[in-house]
Amino acid sequence: MNIGGAAKASGVSAKMIRHYEEVGLLPPAERTEAGYRMYRDADVHTLRFIRQARDLGFSIPVIGELVGLWQNRRRSSRVVKAVAQAHIEELEQKAKDILAMKATLEHLVHCCNGDDRPDCPIIEQLASDAKDGQSPAPAKRPRRGQLTAGHRA
Fold first, then answer.
1. Could you tell me whether strands 30-31 and 37-38 are parallel, antiparallel, or unpaired per DSSP bridges?
2. pLDDT band at residue 131 under the 50/70/90 scheme
3. DSSP the chain
4. Fewer CB in a 10 Å sphere around the end CB: N or C, the chain?
5. Domains along the chain with CATH numbers
């Protein structure tokens, strides 16, 4: 089948199919005499595997590793499990980072009066020179009973 058919059958865009070939996740497609790519059912199956791995957030290099493990019938499930466990740990860290960003933004939004005046702690914080990787300090003094930006919910 041509690239359009492979894209439709796999749920992966033609552009991404070409990219996966380029980065080595998918072997280069056979070509017709006219130079058009032709894909086999096995290629479509690999594309579905890649799509599902991407949907779970695996990076391209890790997907390459998983494709190799999938194609190796002598693989150890222990290795596959370790790859998945490492990804879970990465996802947990990303979730913590996102929650920290959310808490900081909630704090800044709470500090902002949201009125017609130009002073805004959100803009002030975005314009600050914070370089230490820490959560931004409040740009204005917190209102009574308010959490500080360093506080994690």
1. antiparallel
2. low
3. --HHHHHHHHT--HHHHHHHHHTTSSPPPEE-TT--EE--HHHHHHHHHHHHHHHTT--HHHHHHHHHHHH-TT--HHHHHHHHHHHHHHHHHHHHHHHHHHHHHHHHHHH---SSSS--HHHHHHTS---SSSPPPPSSPPPTTPPPTT---
4. C
5. 3-75 (1.10.1660.10), 96-153 (no CATH)
